[in-house]
Amino acid sequence: MDNRPIGIFDSGLGGLTALKELRQLLPQEDLIYFGDTGRVPYGARSPQTLRRFAMENIRFLQSHDVKMIVAACGTISSIMTDEMIADLQIPFTGVVKAAALAACRATRSECIGVIGTSATIRSGSYLRIIREVLPHARVTACACPLFVPLVENGYIEENNPVTELVARDYLSAFANQKPDTLVLGCTHYPLIAPLIGQIMGSGTVLIDPGRETARLVKEYLSAHGLQADEGEGQTRYFVSADTEDFDAIAARFLGHPLERPVEHVDVDDLCR
Q1: Could you confirm whether 73 is annotated as catalytic?
Q2: How far apart are CA 183 and CA 185, in angstroms?
Q3: Is 142 known to be catalytic?
Q4: Using one digit for the tens of pLDDT, what is the confidence trace for 135-147?
Q5: Which of 34, 99, 175, 215 has the smallest number of Cβ neighbours within 10 A?
Q6: Tell me: the pLDDT tens digits for 198-228?
């Protein structure tokens, strides 16, 4: 048994999709969530900058004595190297592998779509893993850079005309070769999954990276004897920008008020 918390980080609100799934699967675990809202969005940043941000966020979580770190961010998961992960000396997982493998299990026609930030799509991370499992898979990838700022600004209702206009434009990339499986390759995207599903149609299965990663975390903790004792786990939330905006949108998505006030972290402190 290990009662230390699990650390989760993302560029902003997106990682809440993973946190929500973790809370449902692991109700006894304490969770610490850090949303780097002061530097969102990550998708247009260089790999070098993203790796620096990742290590700063990881060090912050390690300062809270976490037992495992979840990079609940498709962009960060795509640029973390094996060497970086090995140097952490703490259990770590991103979201790419779990989601890519889930897509391989779900597809019936081996026609798979991937949407993500510009950095994630450029990295080719999903394509590599999918092709390792399904060498002949037809994979169409599309960058959707406006989705993250739309979500961060609260444009998450299914009938929001602005988000729908943007989504229809992006998803038209799949008009000629409609996938039977679509990977939501950024953890922000499940926040607008109802709209994406409506546009893609009932014949397309949506893969939620947060849900798949939560299952992986549960399996890992169980296999390595790292589960917490039975009880009700607590959650702490940290952000690097305005706490009130995060609080309001997070509560709306999670379906309940946050258990405690959101705490602020200064970006300058992360960089030290």
Answers
A1: yes
A2: 5
A3: no
A4: 999 999 999 999 9
A5: 175
A6: 999 999 999 999 999 999 999 999 999 999 9
